[in-house]
Description:
With 170 residues, this protein is of the alpha/beta class. Helices cover 33% and strands 18% of the residues. It has helices spanning 17-33, 62-83, 98-105, 129-137, and strands at residues 9-12, 37-43, 89-95, 111-116, 142-146, 158-159.
Amino acid sequence: MMDVVKGGLVVGVDGSAAALAALRWSATKARLLRAPLVVVHAWQPTAVLRAPYAPAAGRRTPEQEHACAAATLEEAVAELLDADADVDFVPLLDCGPAERVLLCHTSDALLLALGRKPLRDVTGPALGAVARVCLRYAVCPVVTVPEPRSPGEQARPRPAPKTTAGLRRA
């Protein structure tokens, strides 16, 4: 695990359009707050997740998986440099489950920004498993930034929903 950057904005990137929207939004906020932007990509070798009897043909080696993860982070950094070169940022490639890695890097963060798919219906946000865990356990505010619906549309974040589990009406 790498050192935590104190007082920065943390953004998780995974190569998706939603994550890139969160990255662009976070860069703007980091510049306005004069805070560092911590761009985090978590990866883990998939070999440990496979059954020992599963065929080995076509599997990537841990070195190949690491190289793919590094390329994903480099693409995000390139996008950041194209969009906003005035922001101080720290790229972090960390090995481990995404939830654990992101939560570790948010212990002293101003906020955590994550991308999300656009709403498909009105019953609730389209949060993935990583976002739900981060929302539940993060010690800093969590912002979800939707993937733009069209190429020219700007992403507008909205605060993550408050959980009402265990609350009763009076």
